[in-house]
Design a protein that fits this description.
about 325 residues; mainly alpha
C-alpha cells in the first residue's frame, strides 16, 4: 500500500502545466479572447499616457510633439475647474457609496428571506433589469417622470394641490435625485454577489440559531452578516478605488443648463477638455491623476482591512 501511495504521489507531482493544457486545451483556448481584450484595451493603451507629459498635437504625433515634463500637471492644478471637479467627484461618489453600497446588502438580505420561489425570481428579474438599461434611456425616463413642467410626478402633485418640486431643475434637488436614481439602477445587480455569498453559508448555522430561539432579524444580524463579511470588505475596497472616478454617462444623462453646481466632475471635465476643446494633454493628465489617486485609495483600504483582521486583496 505504501508503494502504491508513493507512486500516486509521484505521478501527481510530475503532472505539470503541459499535462493539464493538453487535457483541457479547449477550455484554455476560451481565455484567448478576454486575454486579448485586456492586453489591447487595458495595457497597450497605457502607451497613450505619454501625452500627459507632452504638448500633444495630432499633426505632430506621439514622438513629434514637444516634451514638456510636468508643465501640463502644473497647468492642471491651477485651473479653477479642476478644484471644482475634485470637490464634486468626491461629493457625488461618497454619497453614492454610502447609499449605494448599503442598499444591495439590505436587498440581498430581504430577497434571501423570501420563501416563494416564483415570486422571488420575478422580483430578482425586475430588480436586475435597470442595470442593463442605457443611461441615455434612464435620463429620458427621469425627465419624463421628474420634470418640473410636465413630469408625471409633478403633474400628480399639482393635481393634489401641492407645489411642483424641481427634482432636476434645482442644484440641491438634483443632487438627491442623482443619488436616488443611481441607487435604483445599481442595487439589484449589486445584490447578486451577496446572494451568492449567502447561498454558501452552512445551513446548520441557521438551524443552531433556530434552536437557540433566534428570529429572522436575529439570524440576519448574527449569522448572515458575519458570514458574508469578507465579501462585504472586498467589495468595499474595490468601491473605494473608484471614489475618484464616477460615471460620465450618469452625470451627462441627468445634467442640464439649470443645474451646474454639481455636474462638473472629473470624467465630465476630461470630456470637455479632450473632446470638446481638443486639449488632449490636459485631459490625459487629468485621467492619470484620477487613476493614481484611485490606486492609492485601494492600497490604503486594503492595508486597513488587513489591520482589522480581514484578508484584503493583496
Amino acid at each position: 500500500m505504501k508503494n502504491e501511495n508513493g507512486l500516486l504521489e509521484k505521478s501527481k507531482a510530475k503532472k505539470g502545466f503541459k499535462y493539464y493544457f493538453r487535457r483541457d486545451w479547449q477550455f484554455y483556448s476560451l481565455l484567448l479572447i478576454p486575454i486579448a481584450f485586456v492586453l489591447v484595451f487595458k495595457y497597450a493603451s497605457m502607451f497613450g499616457l505619454i501625452i500627459a507629459f507632452k504638448n500633444y498635437r495630432i499633426a505632430d504625433g506621439f514622438w513629434g510633439s514637444e516634451w514638456v515634463g510636468l508643465d501640463v500637471f502644473k497647468q492642471l492644478f491651477s485651473k479653477p475647474d479642476f478644484v471644482r471637479a475634485i470637490r464634486n467627484t468626491l461629493l457625488l461618489n461618497i454619497l453614492g457609496l454610502t447609499c449605494g453600497f448599503i442598499m444591495p446588502i439590505v436587498l440581498a438580505l430581504l430577497l434571501n428571506e423570501l420563501k416563494g420561489v416564483v415570486f422571488k425570481r420575478v422580483n430578482q428579474t425586475l430588480l436586475y433589469m435597470p442595470h442593463f438599461v442605457s443611461w441615455v434611456i434612464i435620463g429620458a425616463i427621469a425627465y419624463q417622470l421628474l420634470g418640473k413642467g410636465s413630469g408625471m410626478i409633478n403633474n400628480l402633485i399639482d393635481q393634489l394641490g401641492g407645489e411642483r418640486i424641481p427634482f432636476l431643475q434645482d442644484d440641491l434637488h438634483w443632487l438627491f435625485s442623482y443619488i436616488a436614481i443611481g441607487v435604483w439602477q445599481s442595487m439589484g445587480w449589486g445584490s447578486i454577489i451577496y446572494l451568492a455569498a449567502i447561498s454558501g453559508i452552512n445551513p446548520e448555522l441557521y438551524e443552531a440559531a433556530t434552536v437557540d430561539g433566534a428570529g429572522r432579524l436575529r439570524k440576519m444580524w448574527n449569522v448572515t452578516l458575519p458570514s458574508i463579511r469578507p465579501t462585504i470588505v472586498t467589495l468595499l475596497i474595490l468601491s473605494l478605488g473608484g471614489i475618484m472616478g464616477g460615471s460620465f454617462e450618469h452625470v451627462f444623462a441627468l445634467a442640464n443648463k439649470a443645474t451646474t453646481e454639481f455636474t462638473t466632475t472629473i470624467p465630465v471635465l476630461a470630456f470637455r477638455w479632450g473632446i470638446e476643446n481638443g486639449s488632449f494633454s490636459r485631459a490625459t493628465a487629468l485621467g492619470l491623476f484620477q487613476s493614481v489617486i484611485g490606486l492609492i485609495l485601494v492600497l490604503i483600504a486594503d492595508r486597513i482591512a488587513k489591520k482589522l483582521g480581514e484578508d484584503g486583496l493583496l
